Amino acid sequence: MNLKRDVSTRTYSGFALSALLVLTILNVLLQNVPEKVERAGEKLLTLNAQEGVANAVTTVVVFFRGFDTLGEIAVLFIAALGIGLMLSSYSIKEHKEESNFILQKASKLLFPIIVLFGVYVMIYGHLSPGGGFQGGVIIASGVLLLLISDQNFEVPHSIISTLETFAGISYVLIGLIGLLVIDNFLGNFLPHDISEMGMLLSGGIIPLVYIVVGIKVGSEMSLIVQHMIKRSDDD
Amino acid sequence: MSSIYFIALPLLFGFATPLLAKLGKNGIAYVSTLMQAGLFLLALSLLLSTTWHVEVISIAPPLGISFVLNKASLFFVLLFTFMMMMFSFYYLGLRKTDPYKSEGKFFILINMLLAASIGLVLSSDIFNAYVFFEIAGVSAYILSAYRKTPKALEAGLKYLITGMIASIFLLLAITLIYIYLGSLNLAVLSQTFHTLPYNIKVLISLFLLIGFGFKVEIFPLNFWVTDVYEGSDSLVNALFSGIVVKSYLFVFFHILYLFMPHSEFSTFLIILGVVSMVVAEIVALKQTNLKRVFAYSSLGQVGFIFAVMASENVYALTAALFIVLAHSLAKMMIFFIITSIQRSYNSVNIEILKELNSPFLRVMLLLSMLSLLGIPLLAGFVGKFLALKSFAVSGEFIILAVIVIASLIESIYYFKITANLFSKDTKREKVLLTLSQKVVFSTLALLLIAVGILPWLFSGVINDAAHIMMDNAAYVQALMEVTQ
Amino acid sequence: MTGLIILATFIAVIVVAFATVIQKKLPDTIILFMGVGLGAVVLFFVFQAPDVALTEAVIGAGISSLIFLIALKQFKEVV
Amino acid sequence: MIETFLTYLNQDSTITAIVNICSMTLFFIGLFGLLTHRHILRIFISISIMEIAIFLFFIGNTFNKAFTAPLLGDGHTEFIAMNDPIPHAMILTAIVIGMAVFALGVSFAIEYYKLTGKTDINDMNEMGEL
To answer: For helices A101-123 and A132-149, what crossing angle results, to 10°?
Structure first.
C-alpha cells in the first residue's frame, strides 16, 4: 500500500517537474525565433569543392571536423574494451542443440552479400550518403546474423583485434603524416583535384580515412555483438 | 613545436596498446611511463618559449577545430602530465598480485583519460570539447567499475547514468548555441554571445551549468560523487580527484569567462560553491570510511575552488590556481596512501589508522592533511590566504566568514583522523613500500613544502596563467589571426 | 506538403514514445523503442539529412535495440 | 480549406514551431520516463528518447525546406542552396557516441544483475548511508 502511494507520488511529481522544465524551454524558444545568422556550415559548403568530395557531410565529418571523428572512434574503442572487460570473464559452454540446417546455410549465403553492401557503403562514403560508421555497423550486423543463426560460430578474435589496432594506429599516423608533410594535423596531403570530383579515387585522404574508420568501427562492433551474444547464451 | 602531441601521442598509445602488450607484462607499463615523462618534459620546455600557440586541425579557425596552447592551458597541461607521471611511477611499484597489475587495458584507459583531459583544456571548439568530455567520461566509468565487484559496478552505473544526463544537457546547450549563433568556435562565440536575447542566454547558461555541474561536482548535482569514490579503487580516485575534476573546472570557467565576462550570475555561482563546501564539510564529520571522508573533503575543496574562480578577478584566479595545484598534490598523495594501506591491511576504515605500522606514511598523511587545511609553510596555505584576501578586498565578508567556518569544521575531522593516526595501539605488520613509491611520496611532499615556503618560485607561472585566462581579447585575437 | 509530413510523423513518433514510456512489459517497450527510432529515421529523411538517417537506421533503431533485446535475455525476472 | 491549411503548414515559421513543440514534447516524455521509472533498462531507454528528441530538434531547426541535401548528384553540380552539413556531422558523432555509452551501460547492468540480482536503481545501496 505504502509502496503504491510512493509510485504514484513519484509519477505525479515527475510529470509536474518535467512538464515545468519543458514548458519553460518551449516558452523561451517560441518567443525568440532565431534571426538569420551566417552559419559556419554555409562557409564550409563553399570551401567544400576544394577538397573534391561530392558528399559535403563526409568532408565535414572526416576533414573539417576530423578531430571529432578521431575522438568518436576513441569513445567506441574504449566502450568496446569496457564491454569486453565486463562480459568476457565467463566460460563459454558447448552447445548441444544445433540450429536449423536451412537457417545456418541461408545465413551463410546472406553474409557475403551483407558484407558486400557494407563495403559499398564504406567505399562510396565520399560520393553518396553513408561512410565508415554506417558501413562498419552494417558489416557488424552481418556478423550478428551469423552469431544468432549458428551457435558454434565465433569471430576470430585475434585477427579482428589486430585489424582494429592497425586501423586505429593508421588513423593517428595519417594525421601525423599530415603534420609532417604540410604542417597540419589531419591535413589533406594527397592530391585532391576538383576535376576528379565524383570519381572513386578523389578527395585525397578523405576516402582513405573513412575506410580506416569503417574497418575500426566494423571490428569493434563485431566484438561488442559477439560479447553480448556469447554472454547471453551462457546459461 | 606543436601542441597536438599532447593529445595525439596518448591516443596513439591507447590504440597501439594491443600490439604493445606483446612486449611483456611490465614492458607496456615502462613504455607508458616513458611517454608520460616525455610529455611532461615537453611541457616544461614549452614553459620557457611559448606565449601563444594555435594548432590548426585541417582548416583554420573560426571554421575548423584548433587547439590553443597559452600560459593558462600550459599550466594545466603541466599539472596533468606531472600527475599522470607520478601515478605511473606509483603504479610501477605495485605488487604483482595487485588486481590492476599487468593489465594492458588499464593503460589504454589512463592514457585516454590523459588525452581527453588535455584535449578539454586545449580545445577551442565547443563541440570538440563535448567529444573529449565523453572520452574522459567513458574511460572514467570503466575505471570505476574495473574490479567488477558489486560496489565497483554500482559506482560505475551511477557514474554512467549521471554522466549521460550531463552530456544530454550539454548537447542541448551546444545545439542551442549553434542554432542561435551559427558557430562553435569559442572565440567567435565570445564576441557574439552578448547579442543573444536575455531569455536564451539564461537557458543556455542553465544547460551548461547542469551539464558541467554534474562533472565539477557542485552542490545539488554532486549526490553521486561519494558513492563513486567509495565504490571505485582508491588508486583510481587519485586520478579522479587529481586530474579529471580539474580539467572540467578549467573548461567550465574558461567558457564562462569567454561567454559572460563579469556576468550577473557570478554571485549565484559563488553562493553555489560556498554552499557545496559547507554541506560537504558537515556531512564528512559523520563518515568512518577513509575513502568517503576524503571524497567529501574533495567536494568541499572543489566547492571552494568553484567559489573563488567564480568571483572573476585576476587575484582570485591566481589564488584558485594555487589551490588547484595544492589540492591535486595533496589529494593524489592521500589516495596513494589509502591504496597502500588498503593493499596491506585490506581495510579502509578510519580505525585502521590506529594500527598503521609505517612512520613514513603517517608523516606523509599528516603533511597532506595539514596542507589541505591551509597551515602556513605548506602549499594549501598560499592559495587559501590569497583567496580569503581577495574576498576581503572585494568586501564579501559573509562569504569569507562562511569559508572560515567551513575550514574549522574541516579541521575537526582531520583532527579525528590525526588522533587515530597517533594512538598507541598495537601495530600490525609493516606496510610494504617499494622504492619508486617512496620516491613518489617524497616528490609530492617536497613539492607541497616547496610551494608553501617558496611560493614566488611558482607565482610567476601562475600569475601569467591567471592573467591570460581572464584575457578574452588576446584569446580572440590569437584565434582570428591564424590563417592556413 | 513537407509541413504535413513532418507534423504527421512527429505525432506518430510522440504517440509511440509515450507508449514506450508507459508500457508495462519490458520486451514490448524495447520493440516500441525501435519504432521511435524508425520514426526518427523518416524525419531525418524529410529534413534532408540522408547521412544522419542512414546512421540512425543502422545504429539507433538497429544495433542498439538489438543490444537491448540481447540484454533482456539476461534479466530473468522480466518486468 | 485544406489548401489554406497545407500552405499554412508549409510556412517556414510553422515548420520551426512544429519542430520545437514536438521535439520538446518528446524530450518531456523521455524526462518523465527518467524521473518515473526505476528499472535500469527503462532508464536507459528514457535517456535514449531524450537524445533522439535533441537530435530531431537540432536537425529540424537548422533545416531549410527550399534547399537540398548537402550532396552532389542528380543534376546538382555546385555546392549552393544546400542544407547546413555541420549539424549533420555533429549528430552523426553524437549518435555513435550515445550508442557506445548505452552498450557500455547495458553491460554494466548485466554484470551487476549477475552478481546481485538487482535491476532497480532504488535498491542499489551497497554503499554507506548519506
So the answer is: 170
